[in-house]
């Protein structure tokens, strides 16, 4: 598939983000999307064809592969990238709504439609919470589906129609484990960045409200 739409989305969100948000966009684009396209996608491209069992019993190999890899790693990574990026559309839509509202009333209603304040601040915070939530959910899902982030060289399968316990071998296990660890680490960095940006915005808004009350009180 073409990842141009995700690149355009991240580029569009970048101009409405804080400094921490721009770092998040860079990490997603460089260390996740580009790594996925350039390397990871090719490593898992023929994972089913390269999965071998030491038996020729019809159906045994397919059943064992389905048991140990219920969902393809690469498709799950792709779904994760899409899910953690789409909450940013909320911010883009909110800014577009502001711009359309100003155009409809033919007057300046906001200092800047892209400035993070008021309703846009709430939308931005919701998008950060959703992105963090999706990251955590997918990491837990990966861990549960594959019993951790390690890729074994050998798995033993005794599921029917296999007549007995057979040995099945996974191709390029070391290379796959390296990329899984890299992508998991990048995902964890994104979670830290999202939480840092969330804390920063809440702290900034709290200080702003406190200063307003303080000035109003002393006036």
Concise account of the structure shown:
With 219 residues, this protein is mainly alpha-helical. 69% of the residues lie in helices and 5% in strands.
Distance between the termini: 60 Å
Largest sheet: 3 strands, antiparallel
Give the low-pLDDT segments.
none
The tally of beta strands, per DSSP, is 3
User: How much helical structure, as a percent, in the residues?
Assistant: 55-70%
Domain Connexin N-terminal: 42-75
Keywords: Cell junction, Cell membrane, Gap junction, Membrane, Transmembrane, Transmembrane helix
Transmembrane segments: 21-39, 77-97, 118-143, 177-203
Domain Connexin cysteine-rich: 134-201
